[in-house]
Structure formats: C-alpha cells, structure tokens
Specification:
The chain has 122 residues and is mainly α. It folds into 3 domains: 30 residues, no CATH class; 34 residues, no CATH class; 49 residues, no CATH class. The chain is built from 6 helices and 2 strands. The chain has a two-stranded antiparallel ribbon with strand order 1-2. The chain starts with a strand and ends in a 6-residue tail after the last helix.
Length: 122
C-alpha cells in the first residue's frame, strides 16, 4: 500500500487502489471518531461508524429512503423546496454565496417538520 507521512506526522494513503484497500481495512483505518471537534460534538452517522455498527445503522434507516417511503411525501417536498427558494436571499444581498448557507441554517428546522417528520429545532 502506498503510505506516506506528511509534514504534520499524519499517515496518508495515496492512489486509487491504496484508498480502496484502506477503506476495506476498517480496523487499521477506523472511521469511528467524531471529526471536526472544534465545530461539532456529535458523529456524522453513518459515516463515522465502523462495521458492524455502520451496517446495522444503514439497515435501520435504508427503508426510510426507499421509493415507497418517499413517493407519498413528494408533493410536500416540492412545496417545501419552492418555499425555500422563494424565501432565499439573493447572492447580491449578502457578502457570501447565500444558497448553501441559507439551506444549512434551516435544516433541520421547525418549518420542515410537517413534510419530513423530523423533529424541529427547539
């Protein structure tokens, strides 16, 4: 495996085949961490889980993302998307690209709860 150590002393896996090999070796290259601790104190699930917990999590939530589960909500998703777009500030009115930040700041949001079934913000 093409493994190097960078200037910070961190191991780096380089190259397509080496990355694929490392991805299968979850005991050596674990994802079981909470990344960006300066930004958040929670795991990004299922990305920061190793097998078998990752597999169990995916099996539990996958039915929620199947066509049969999403199709009944399609109309409410379209209404929500149209509302978010219409309420979005224009990029000219802000000092940063507004769309990604606007959406990020509203997910999850109490206004999304009726169409998604997700709990809203307190």
């Amino acid at each position: 495996m093409d493994l190097t150590v960078n200037e910070k002393g961190q191991r780096e896996v380089r190259g397509h085949h080496a990355v694929r090999e490392a991805a299968k070796d979850w005991r050596t290259y674990s994802s079981d961490l909470t990344g960006d601790r300066d930004v958040r104190i929670y795991k990004q699930l299922p990305l920061e889980l190793d097998p078998p917990r990752h597999t169990k999590f995916r099996e539990a939530v996958q039915p929620l993302f199947m066509s049969a589960a999403l199709e009944p909500k399609a109309d409410s998703f379209e209404v929500l998307a149209a509302r978010l777009i219409s309420e979005s500030p224009s990029a000219a009115a802000t000092s940063r690209p507004s769309w990604p930040f606007y959406i990020r700041d509203r997910l999850p949001d109490h206004r999304l709860q009726p169409s998604t079934g997700l709990p809203g913000r307190a």
